[in-house]
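Data card: per-record layout.
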Amino acid sequence: MSDLSQEQWAQQLKADENAFILDVRTEEEVADGFIPNAKNLNIFKGQAFIYELEALDKNKNYYVYCKAGVRSGQACVIMNQMGFDNAYNLMGGFSEWTGDIEE
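The structure for this 103-residue chain is written out next.
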């Protein structure tokens, strides 16, 4: 798993043509705003979360975030165990995000 600072995550994402943004927060949290083009998979859904991950393309580079960086870190570990080679955790999460936001 790779923990990236807000600045590193944003810069790497911008330059990555194979990027996939993954928001692992709850639907209620997403309703407060999200990073543009993010796909929401709620990590609290347990096995359903795993099934949703299995449907994703393991060849993409995943930029994962939650509210503060803890759940997204857990998601990156799970993804690495499942064979995703490139999962990047946004340290500080959405609460510290200064980039674009969609509502």
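Known properties of this structure: The mean pLDDT is 97. The chain has four helices and five strands.

See the next section for split statistics.
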